[in-house]
């Protein structure tokens, strides 16, 4: 096996090459990579020995030569192999290559950007991927492990592995080109969406629909380590639950049902937050998806008890928590990491919509009317962040960091208010009400007053704000304006 190595990120390449050295005939490397490998005790030849010229233009030109690309692109046919031999060129079987770090410089000057745009590396990777039926291409430790495993078990790199590495290589160069294009154009809306190989689900939203998951570890990861296979709807609910939990730093729990919260709470501990979130609407919590924003231990999961829960999600789980929860055969356990996507995409009839991820942080909070009760900033932010993750039109009632009533997904805002108050019952009295958009009419405030609500936080900005303000004054309800809307359709 002949190896060609030209690496910017050299992490792990020395250990990999030593682990497969019995399969290697010769290693050729660019000067920087050769120097690195030789310090690690790995003998290799300079690419210059093969091409007959030294690296040029400060390293800008080093691999762009027929001796290199003929050795990569030659098919395993007698005629082409003899042609290589005639020219004295080796046939390369394994290419180790990754690209200049452009991402660090994507906001730099044009000259700095240009210096960090890789040319030869992209060509090497694409050439190797093009000829995947004979050549393997590796970019990092994950690729190294796959090749090592095949060589150890089979003495060769399987066709299936070479094909998978080629697909991943094209995805890698495509992402690299997209990053450069967006940076140079200054246009964030230029995107190449590469889905890769999807995971086929049992079915989609309904059994008659096909469902596929396209994972992207750069956004975040969900590891299902206990329980049966996830469905399309499970993934949607789990994602919404995690997205909600990411908005909170103190111990927080959210109970998700049909892609909207039915209970949420903060507490001194995760266990306290979870107990309060479940009790906020125990009826709806049956068959729900629950997310905690920390590590779940035995105390934290105790509130679940005999409650039937579809999925429990946490940053991690202690062994004692897993021991308790694993007795529930139908409960799926998920560990999550990452911060989620910066952009949201949605397919529509004539294309794809893109938007920035919603920022639920309140900037300047304006006190429009001071009523009988003033609420702490912490309570206001809690209510606001929860309502931002409920389907619009949405209304959330909270008390002491716990939801007491939620009305969401309504076509009429006043209807959402009525539903939230009905769900809260007597708990509505003294609560804070959050609305994801402004009140178009004062009737919303009038319903709130009849149910004893003492505070309202909403964006403001309606042409009838004056009427809404007067209604809040009449009812002695404290009214806050955030100046921002948090619709979630």
How do the strands and helices of this protein lay out in sequence?
Blueprint: E1 2-6, H1 13-19, E2 26-29, H2 31-39, E3 45-46, H3 47-51, H4 66-73, H5 78-87, E4 94-97, H6 110-115, H7 120-130, E5 136-138, H8 141-154, H9 159-185, E6 199-200, E7 212-213, E8 220-226, H10 232-245, E9 252-257, E10 260-266, H11 270-279, H12 282-285, E11 288-292, E12 295-296, H13 298-301, E13 309-314, E14 316-317, H14 319-325, E15 332-338, E16 343-348, E17 351-356, E18 366-369, H15 377-387, E19 395-399, E20 402-407, H16 413-424, E21 432-435, H17 443-450, E22 455-458, H18 465-474, E23 478-481
Parallel strand pairs: 1-2, 1-4, 2-3, 4-5, 11-13, 12-14, 13-15, 21-22, 22-23
Antiparallel strand pairs: 6-7, 8-15, 9-10, 9-11, 16-17, 18-23, 19-20, 19-21
Helix pairs in contact: 7-9, 16-17
Report on the architecture of this protein.
The chain is α/β, with parallel strands linked by helices and 489 residues long. Helix content is 36%, strand content 21%. The chain folds into 3 domains: 2-185, 3-Layer(aba) Sandwich (Rossmann fold); 221-338, Cytidine Deaminase, domain 2, CATH 3.40.140; 366-481, Cytidine Deaminase, domain 2 (3-Layer(aba) Sandwich). It contains 18 helices and 23 strands. A 6-stranded mixed sheet has the order 8-15-13-11-9-10. Strands 18-23-22-21-19-20 form a 6-stranded mixed sheet. Strands 3-2-1-4-5 form a 5-stranded parallel sheet. The longest helix has 27 residues, at 159-185. The two termini are 56 Å apart. The model has no long low-confidence stretch (mean pLDDT 92).
């Amino acid at each position: 096996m002949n190896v060609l190595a030209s690496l910017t990120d050299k992490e792990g390449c020395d250990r990999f090459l030593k682990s497969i050295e019995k399969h290697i005939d010769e290693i050729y490397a660019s000067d920087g990579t050769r120097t690195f490998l030789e310090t690690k005790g790995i003998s290799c030849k300079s690419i210059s020995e093969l091409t007959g010229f030294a690296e040029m233009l400060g390293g800008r030109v080093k691999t762009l030569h027929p001796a290199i690309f003929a050795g990569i692109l030659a098919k395993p046919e007698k005629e082409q192999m003899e042609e290589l031999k005639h020219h004295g060129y080796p046939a390369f079987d394994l290419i180790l290559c990754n690209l200049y770090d452009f991402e660090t410089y994507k906001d730099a000057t044009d000259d700095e950007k240009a210096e960090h745009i890789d040319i030869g590396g992209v060509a090497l990777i694409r050439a190797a991927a093009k000829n995947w039926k004979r050549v393997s291409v590796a970019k990092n430790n994950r690729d190294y492990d796959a090749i090592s495993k095949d060589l150890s078990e089979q003495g060769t790199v399987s066709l299936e592995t070479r094909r998978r590495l080629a697909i991943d290589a094209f995805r890698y160069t495509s992402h690299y080109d997209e990053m450069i294009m967006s940076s140079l154009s200054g246009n964030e809306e230029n995107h190449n969406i590469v889905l890769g190989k999807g995971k086929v689900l049992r079915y989609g939203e309904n059994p008659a629909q096909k469902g596929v998951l396209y994972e992207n570890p750069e956004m975040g990861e969900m590891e299902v380590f206990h329980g049966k296979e996830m469905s399309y709807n499970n993934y949607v609910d789990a994602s919404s639950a995690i997205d909600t939990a990411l908005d909170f730093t103190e111990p927080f729990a959210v109970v998700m049902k049909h892609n909207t919260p039915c209970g949420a709470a903060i507490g001194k501990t995760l266990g306290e937050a979870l107990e309060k979130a479940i009790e906020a609407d125990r009826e709806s919590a049956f068959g729900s998806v629950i997310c905690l924003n920390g590590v779940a231990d035995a105390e934290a999961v105790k509130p679940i008890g005999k409650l039937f829960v579809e999925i429990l999600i946490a940053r991690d789980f202690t062994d004692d928590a897993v021991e308790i929860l694993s007795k529930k055969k139908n409960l799926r356990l998920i560990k999550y990491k990452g911060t989620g996507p910066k952009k949201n995409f949605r397919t529509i009839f004539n294309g794809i919509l893109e938007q920035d991820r919603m920022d639920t942080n309140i900037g300047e909070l304006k006190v429009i009317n001071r009523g009988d009760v003033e609420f702490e900033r912490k309570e206001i932010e809690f209510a606001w962040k929860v309502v931002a993750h409920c389907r619009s039109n949405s209304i959330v009632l909270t008390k002491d960091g716990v939801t007491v009533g939620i009305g969401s997904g309504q076509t009429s805002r006043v209807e959402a208010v009525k539903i939230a108050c009905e769900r809260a019952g007597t708990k509505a009295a003294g609560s804070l009400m959050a609305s994801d958009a402004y009140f178009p009419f004062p009737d919303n405030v009038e319903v709130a007053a009849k149910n004893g609500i003492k505070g309202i936080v909403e964006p403001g900005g309606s042409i009838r704000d004056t009427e809404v303000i007067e209604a809040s004054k009449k009812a002695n309800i404290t009214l806050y304006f955030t100046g921002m809307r948090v619709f979630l359709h």
